Amino acid sequence: MKYMRLGQSDLLVPRLALGCMRMSALSLTEAKQVIQQCLDLGINFFDHADIYGKGQSERIFGQAIKELGLEREQVIIQSKCGIRPGFFDFSKEHILAAVDGILERLQTDYLDLLVLHRPDTLWEPEEVAAAFSSLKEQGKVRHFGLSNVNRYQMELLQAYWQEPLLVNQLQVSLVHTPMIDAGLQVNMLTEGGLNRDGGILDYCRLRGVTIQAWSPFMIDLAQGTFFDHPDYPELNHVLAELADSKGVSVEAIATAFLLRHPAQMQVLVGSMNPDRLQKIAAASQVELSRQEWYRLYLSAGKELP
Ligand SMILES: NC(=O)c1ccc[n+]([C@@H]2O[C@H](COP(=O)([O-])OP(=O)(O)OC[C@H]3O[C@@H](n4cnc5c(N)ncnc54)[C@H](OP(=O)(O)O)[C@@H]3O)[C@@H](O)[C@H]2O)c1
């Protein structure tokens, strides 16, 4: 596994992290196997949210960590809050209450990172900053980040919260690249040229914010992953050819595509299958040339000017 500094912090983190959204479906024994596999592969960073499995993902993870006999410092735990049934809530009251629930379910005293899950248009950034201050003072949260936000939303909060936000969690995969497309088709009247995020990719690079790529293999929930998907024959052909030539799996190549970008993204992998996790982790050994990267990009149906 390769490691990097998260955002502008000193926190050393693996390039791949386990997204625990689907952990609620596992038995305790299976959860322990998945966590142990991650640790064996050098993946000691785990992403949660209070809503995953209505809290069950955090609950099972907390119990698994306890039964595995792990020290708290052996794992880096991030969780998210701010999504409630039918609405978004970045109020101070809700953030503080949500963190107490998260800590209880995870059976821990602190989070390494708290991330606000999806922007609440009714938010007051000074209220969020006050919530962050209180959580930090109480030792409940060490660092903070945002998710699914644009440049101005990050700047708005940074006008009130003085510490650097470390991460922005965004959907990025071989088949979901609007933030990359827009930068390749500047000022063009094309679909790809639409700037949907205010230039978030370059903004994060400029400010040293780590983009955490979510759903690295999924088309969407209904269609599943792009592996062997009939809509992506060329992509699967190129994935297979590169996997063969480099002696790794197609999953490793698809992951390496994200790791190769100089934005230094951290990839949130959601598989709960220990064998797949092993195949995916091999991505950290893969070197993709510039030409290979563009070939993959184009094979997913993208265009260059
Ligand atoms: N901030 C946000 O709004 C947001 C939104 C969504 C997700 N996330 C985070 O991102 C993490 C990853 O998201 P995700 O689970 O959608 O991502 P993913 O890694 O793209 O997808 C994983 C899913 O694909 C399945 N799968 C089928 N074939 C696969 C293959 N060959 N290789 C790998 N997986 C395969 C996995 O099943 P198996 O388990 O059987 O392998 C699993 O159900 C989540 O756990 C969560 O932490 C954040």
TrEMBL record:
Residue ranges occupied by any NADP-dependent oxidoreductase domain in the UniProt entry: 15-295
SUPFAM superfamilies: NAD(P)-linked oxidoreductase
GO cellular component, one term: cytosol
The protein's name in its UniProt record: Aldo/keto reductase family oxidoreductase
Top-level taxon of the source organism: Bacteria
